[in-house]
User: Fold this.
Amino acid sequence: MIKKFLRNCRKPQGWMGRFTVKGMNFGHAVISEWGLSRLEISNDARVLDIGCGGGANIERLLRMCPAGRVDGIDYSEESVAISRKKNSSAIGKHCDIRLGPVSSLPT
Ligand SMILES: C[S@@+](CC[C@H](N)C(=O)[O-])C[C@H]1O[C@@H](n2cnc3c(N)ncnc32)[C@H](O)[C@@H]1O
Assistant:
């Protein structure tokens, strides 16, 4: 069970993957907000969140760059689905979230 959980942290899959991704959105909030608060980022910046998980950081970055765009990529179908849902109002405008490995970024 612990091995399965750890595998899901690396690549969330199935029901446990969905649970893990939602847990990461919640559990990483404090450290993510601290990390992002250290960035000097212009409001029209273009940002790519690699391994975007459940999309909570994309949501934060979209607030930080209202005149820019924030895209995400993740190789987990569960992560991409949750991330797209979380950022649905920005998708197609200032945001695109793609499924795939970071080793072959789409052009
Ligand atoms: C530990 S989670 C972190 C998620 C998010 N960045 C956060 O801070 O909450 C790692 C995420 O990176 C993704 N990931 C890991 N290796 C990847 C790779 N080579 N290409 C694309 N996504 C990857 C996983 O699917 C997972 O959703």
Observations:
- The chain has one domain: 2-104.
- The chain has a mean pLDDT of 95.
